[in-house]
Design a protein that fits this description.
The structure is a single chain. This protein is mostly helical and 242 residues long. It has one domain. It is built from 9 helices and no strands. α1 packs antiparallel against α6 and α6 runs antiparallel to α7. The radius of gyration is 18 Å and the shape is globular. The termini are far apart.
């Protein structure tokens, strides 16, 4: 079923700004609590010497994202919306998909060139650490799925889906895109300042596509592409192929 994602059900507007932020923070908190409990149950006796442990990242993503999505879907239903409609999980048009893919390819090329010109490594050390620790523990496939599939779904539903729906107001779409891109960039504290600038730029691109296409599904696809490219480069570096 294809939803008109910006059509508000009669008499049932989206959550206001304070409630939207509260629901989002609650979903993150509950997801973190559940992920901590799951990790304790599965790996409680496992000692880690890694700051960015691939096993922790994997379990955290698989345990927390369904909780977060569930909470936000429930919040949408409380406003008498279908969750898919509230979160803009519709089917983008073929032309939109092609355009989005071309935008991401251009963004990835520009980002890598910027890193090369600035003398920085294409692959941050924390990504190598997460990859290697997951591989050593036999969790590499899980890490790849968590980073490439689970994390993009969770982050896009939270930021370009739920948060966008609650924050956007007619005439203030650009401001909403900037605010959400800023919040999303601040979430990625593992990066240096240039990395966070790149995350912010990616957030602006994803936010613009969300506004233009009215589809969070499309931004999920774009986010997946970004993470696929990052993990390919990480694997090549970690395996000593260049």
């Amino acid at each position: 079923m294809i939803f008109n994602t910006d059509q508000i059900p009669s008499g049932h507007p989206a959550w206001g700004i304070p409630a939207t932020i509260a629901w989002l923070l609650f979903s993150f908190l509950l997801g973190t609590v559940v992920a901590t409990l799951v990790f304790a149950a599965l790996q409680g006796d496992r000692a880690s010497t890694f700051t960015y442990d691939g096993v922790v990242i994997t379990i955290g993503a698989f345990a927390s994202v369904p909780v977060q999505v569930g909470v936000l879907s429930y919040a949408a239903m409380l406003r008498h919306w279908a969750p898919a409609g509230y979160l803009a999980l519709n089917r983008p048009r073929p032309g939109e998909i092609v355009f989005a893919v071309l935008c991401i390819i251009a963004f990835i090329i520009a980002s890598d060139l910027l890193l090369v010109v600035s003398g920085r490594a294409l692959v941050p050390s924390y990504q190598i650490e997460a990859y290697q620790s997951a591989k050593d523990a036999g969790w590499l496939i899980g890490l790849l799925l968590a980073v490439i599939i689970v994390a993009p779904i969770g982050e896009e539903i939270a930021f370009r889906g739920f948060l966008y729906r609650g924050l956007v107001r007619p005439g203030y779409e650009k401001l909403t895109i900037v605010v959400i891109a800023t919040a999303w960039a601040l979430l990625h504290i593992q990066y240096d300042w240039l990395g966070m600038v790149q995350i912010f730029a990616a957030g602006l691109l994803l936010g613009w596509v969300r506004w233009a296409s009215r589809s969070t599904t499309l931004t999920i696809l774009m986010h997946v592409m970004i993470n696929v490219e990052a993990m390919i480069e990480t694997a090549i570096k970690a395996e000593g192929l260049f």
